[in-house]
Amino acid sequence: MKFDCIIIGGGISGLTAGIRCVKEGLHTAIISSGMSALHFSSGSIDVLGYINNKVVYKPFEALDTLTGTIAQHPYTKCGKPLIIEALHFFKQECETQNVYLFDNENLNHFHVTALGTLKPTYFSQRSVFNEDVYNRFKSMKKIVIVNFEGYRDFHPQLAAAQLSKHALFANCEIIAKSIDMPQLQDLTRHPHEFRSIDIARIFEDEENVYKIADAIRLAAEGADFVVIPAFMGIHNFNQIHNMLQSRTRLLIYEVPTLPPSILGLRIDNALKSRFAQLGGVFIAGDKVVRAEINNDVVQAVYTANHPENPLEAKFYILSTGSFFSGGMISEFNNIYEPIFKLKLHYEPERNKWYSPQFFYKNSHPFLEYGVVTDENLRPYDSNNNIIQNVYCSGAILAHYNPIREGCGSGVAISTAYKAANQIISLYKLMR
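^ that's the sequence the OP posted. Answer follows.
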């Protein structure tokens, strides 16, 4: 099969690049081996949350500091105007699928985690941040954190205890409550076996939503905020959110749950639907295992399911992620990229890959390991030659720390957008 562009990896970066390419008329395929990191994410988009272990409130001003000090950082290679353009593009594409992302203009806002901590972010879904949340936050006096009896992946008492320690909530009463969800009793499995995705399906039934709303209203009477785990539906979440708030007359706020993340799943579904709607080809459940390269140009790639059938393209984008998704492989004293055998940035001594403490404030060095690229995001091979028609985006890239800097999804979107732009410009010149 022949394409204009093949994207290896179907996460947030690969999907963003795919949508960008197919919108410009490129015959584009995405090859995805399975679930992406979106299924494990908060569902919010972080641009830049921390610098030097300090919280960033103005991410776009802080970008100037970051890019001025780290020459190889992916944000430096993108530049602030392109980063802003990429975020705007991503927001618009999500909204075509009714996933509405809200921001605090040029400022970060904070979303509540499942543990009751506050995390800086830039975009959040409307059930996490919107104008009503912003306005109510200034005068809140009572928060009720609600869980559903039998659901073990959320602990309201822990969340309430952690939130109460924060100075922002010094004058706020925070209460933890549990309510029954009778619908779980009608199903074959025991309620303790359920995960967020099972409960999200229950919310898709309108009659169930009314019953749940009545239970929430009784448990949270007088609250300024009602915090619930994020499982207000997978597909009709906007309608469900509106129905819950209308019937309870309360402000309902979702917090991310343990995987699978419903908030992340909504973005994943939206991007895949948008890519398919535009005519992109999504090849699921297959894995690229090797490439044919001649004179620093990739001629074809081969997958595990079809090892003898080449997939050919003029351009390729590598968006396979880091260690978590198999974009890089670690051995006892070696790290390598398995498809193209690209040049990597990493410390050769294994004892330098990690920090002595798991929750070390500067995170772990291995999070900064990845593929080395030129300023246009083209990678180098093991002989230090640039592979001419391959571009890299997202977590496969070196020289940034998504945890310490709070910038994982922002880098994924920005570098995907830049890689796609490079390809689109060359493609138009070739026509």
